[in-house]
Amino acid sequence: MNANLVALLYLVSGVLFILALRGLSNPETARRGNQYGMIGMAIAIGVTLTLLSFNPMIIGLIAGGALIGGGAGVVIARRIPMTAMPQLVAAFHSLVGLAAVLVAAAAFLSPEAFGIADAAGQIKAISRVEMALGAAIGAITFSGSVIAFAKLNGNMSGAPILLPFRHVINIAIALAMTGLTVAFVLSDGAASGGGHLLWYITALAFLIGFLLIIPIGGADMPVVVSMLNSYSGWAAAALGFTLENTALLITGALVGSSGAILSYIMCKGMNRSFISVILGGFGGDTAAASGETETRPVKQGSADDAAFIMKNAGRVIIVPGYGMAVAQAQHALKELADVLKEEGVDVAYAIHPVAGRMPGHMNVLLAEANVPYDEVFELEDINSEFSNADVAFVIGANDVTNPAAEDDPSSPIYGMPVLKVWNAKTVFFIKRSLGSGYAGVENPLFFRDNTMMLLGDAKKMAEEIVKAL
User: Fold this and answer.
1) Which DSSP letter does residue 64 get?
2) Are 386 and 420 in contact (CB under 8 A)?
3) CA–CA gap between residue 12 and residue 22 (Å, rounded)
């Protein structure tokens, strides 16, 4: 294929990726955005395949890999529940990071095949820079994503694991990696020279990936998922330089920059410093204290109580959280909202930026249940409306509705913007128990005079309320 045509098609795929991101920024255009992304990826893969020499072994390896990977992707996509989507994303990020490490290793071992060798057969200096960065970022992404997956999937505790002198250790490793990278770039890059330095850089990067994510607690996991997404993008961009592939470079830069912007937005939504999230655990001091549960009495209601009050309400604001995702209660909740609207009740949904386990988690679930987009509002658009609401109906959104964020300076979530559901006349809170949320911080909202706890499974409770209505 003509080189100019290849460059043009890669540019077209890059534009389609940009349009995909633009489409995904709004629920109404998300489906079209996904379609743009799929078309762009199909073009990029098709063009790349045309550049290969027709070698039966190479074609067979590529076809086999595509069938295995594509088959696994189809099975996972059909079987994975929405509650497991955050850990699935973390797992996919780990694969991108590992791919970056493997490509860097392949380029190091066979520079001629990648076109990065000079006349003397040595790896070019600029290629050594790309190789070291790609391997380091990829290794950090892989090991960090593995820890994030384990925390999100429950294979290890979501509480921060705070190692002594962790900041000193991380700084020492970072300085060592920097020094080794400089030494590798200044060397000839050959295995007989300074080539072994690449393996040291990769090993230290794997280690620091673990050390960076282990001390991060559950409350900061949405930021971690977004941050790892950004890392995987920069790793892909480094591969684009090494492989001299424009489409991969554009894709990696888009993912890396959009992930970084999203991480900033998440930190802003949590009133958190991005640097503090990366360098230390959140909720570590309260994790041990979370075992001391409050013994004050609570008002416990029933589905009949909730149905009677909401039927006679003028406005109900529904606040979905991870409890809705676990119970897959979005369809029952949509049915409940439809019944209330038939009774003349004004219904709206309030979404916190970090509700659930990843950005946009609640929006996707509500879209799956065909909740009208114009009924879904972000925190800054609806927070002032709770004082005008008769009922705030909270489904498992524990940490993002905690009043301690506003009135308890000793709380680890103090200063974090939260949904002020307590300003409503009545607060119904569906939870399986009175336990603390994912951040390990107890919610004093449970014990307020205008709060009524509806203990039980969210889906079953919503269905019972519908029947009562």
Assistant:
1) H
2) yes
3) 15
Per-residue pLDDT tens digits for 127-165? 888 889 999 999 999 999 999 888 888 788 767 777 888
Number of H helices, E strands in the chain: 19, 6
Rounded to the nearest 10 degrees, what angle do helices 458-468 and 303-311 cross at?
60
Catalytic status, residue 407? no
Superfamily of domain 294-468: TPP-binding domain (3.40.50.1220)
Rounded mean pLDDT, 106-127? 83
* pLDDT tens, position by position, 66-114: 899 989 989 988 888 777 777 888 888 899 899 999 998 998 888 888 8
Can you tell me the distance from the alpha carbon of 332 to that of 366, in angstroms, rounded to the nearest whole number?
11
Q: Where are the beta strands (DSSP E) in 368-438?
A: 376-378, 391-395, 426-431
* pLDDT more than 90, % of the chain: 34
Query: Sign of the CA dihedral 136, 141, 142, 148?
Result: positive
Non-local (6+) Cβ contacts of 82 within 8 A are: 325, 328, 361, 364, 365, 368
User: What average pLDDT does this structure show over 28-44?
Assistant: 91
Q: How far apart are CA 314 and CA 149, in angstroms?
A: 43
Q: How far is CA 287 from CA 93, 149, 152, 437, in A?
A: 28, 20, 16, 11
Question: What band does 304 get if pLDDT is binned at 50, 70 and 90?
Answer: very high
Q: Is the dihedral of CA 191, 145, 90, 149 positive or negative?
A: positive
- Which is nearest to 318 in space by CA: 266, 375, 235, 268? 375
Q: Which listed residue (118, 346, 399, 407) is catalytic?
A: 399
How distant is the alpha carbon of residue 266 from its chain centre?
A: 10
- Supply 15's token pair: 């534009």
Distance CA 400, CA 411 (A): 13
Mean pLDDT of the chain: 85
b/e map 120-132, b = 16+ CB within 10 Å: eebbeeebbbbbb
Please give the average per-residue pLDDT across 274-281, as a whole number: 61
Q: List Cα–Cα distances, 198 to 109, 132, 194, 343, in angstroms.
A: 11, 6, 8, 68
pLDDT surpasses 80 at 6:
yes
Residues 459/332, Cβ–Cβ less than 8 Å = yes
pLDDT band at 57 (very low <50, low <70, confident <90, very high): confident
Q: Which residues pair with 315 in a beta bridge?
A: 346
Does residue 40 register a pLDDT over 60? yes
